[in-house]
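Ticket #4471: complex job returned nothing on first submit. Input attached below:
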Amino acid sequence: MNGARQTLSRETLAAIPAVTTRSDLSDCLGRICAEAGAERFLLLGTLIDHGGERPYIIASNWVYDTVHILGLERLARLSAGPRTCAIGEPAKPIATDGDDALRLLARHGHAEIYCVGLNATAQRCKALFSSGRVGAIDDQMLPQAQLACCYLLSRVPADLLGTPPPNSLSVRERECLRWVSEGKTTGEVAMILGVTANTVNSYLAHAIRKYGASNRAMAIATAIRSGTI
Amino acid sequence: MKHRTAQDGPASPAKAKAAADGLDVTQENVAVVLDTVRQARRLAASAAASFYGLYVETRHRRIPGLATVFDREFPRTSDLSRAICGPAGMAWMATRAESLAPAWWYCETGAQQCPAFPLVSLGHKVPALTPNLPGLALPVFAEGGIGGFFVLAGRDMAVDDGLVCDLHIRAFSLFRSLARLRLSQLDGTPPMSKRELECLTMTAEGKTSEDIAAALGLSVHTANQYLATTTHKLNAMSRTHAVAKALRLGLIE
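Support reply: We reran it on our side without changes. The output follows.
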């Protein structure tokens, strides 16, 4: 693997900055997907609410039935943490370790699936690339496809990515959470921000309610995970 | 008590070396740092760039900014790095949270407009850092929320979209190998036990000591004890602080 490295074609890369509509987005993903040797793509977004994470589909060329039969929950489990390849890591397919979701997908024309992380924006997205034939996807090309997807997500207007994370915090609420996450007590935060301790507590209570968290620790964990602080 | 966190990053190459020397004094770590510098040099060569540098975001100082990990003049720091660690770097950082697109700049004075980047359609243009020196800044990040930039610059630099992608991926793996090194050192924090991490994870999920004790089959006192040890080990002020630190250091997901 030395000499000239493989990259996506110039046409595909040049199409990325030109994406303005939803159909452009699907077209562009389709091109990226095809160049990596994959047949199907599915772009997953994550909603964070009530302290939990809920996936939703931003764009896909999967047969609708497949998503329907599999269900979002199993889809989320399929693309959970350790199965996702981060940028800069060698690409690995999701191992077929007797998982019933994978067996089901194999029957529906997804014999091999790769899940790549796209942490381009504050919203953590993932992309699934799959093919009906094992070995069809070029694992040297896949990191290029992954990065191209990140560029794409960095470019497109937020409303194309579907619902923005709900209950976004106010500047003050975020400030309070950040200071508390630095180990400051309520009194100290009050002093830093020049407000009373009661006000700080009320900001924090709002933040906790917005996240549907049960206490400060959970609210802070949610805020860090979602990249808010 | 001043405590260096992984996000602070070494402020100078000398410190980078000290970090590699002092914490986990294995030959291996020094080797990783030196290997990263070598990789960076190769990366620069493939873009015909005369300058390269790696910078890490330090968000936990009073004024957030970029700090130099190393640059072409390793183990010293060049003038360009000092410019990057100023307001320019702060402006880049502000966009990194929302965009992974590369930033590039060139000099607009004179007849030669954009000689280096006729073929780049990706990314966005930023104000030039030094006259007559076009450059490219690639945003990178690793687990635990550590972010940074890999910068290439040079008068004869020639890149196109495909090469930018290739450089960016290599910059990512370079940054990750370095970040892993620093994470494992965790500024001397003792390793956490499985139980301690379990308690910490559950605290992050909003569970109380009682919940944790019940779920793990411990007494409430023991659960509290585990949490007290983690808080101490992470040099945190409170449990909440410990959760925040553990998440940022990538100890828990």
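The CA atoms of residues 74 and 153 of chain A lie 24 Å apart. Closing as resolved unless it happens again.
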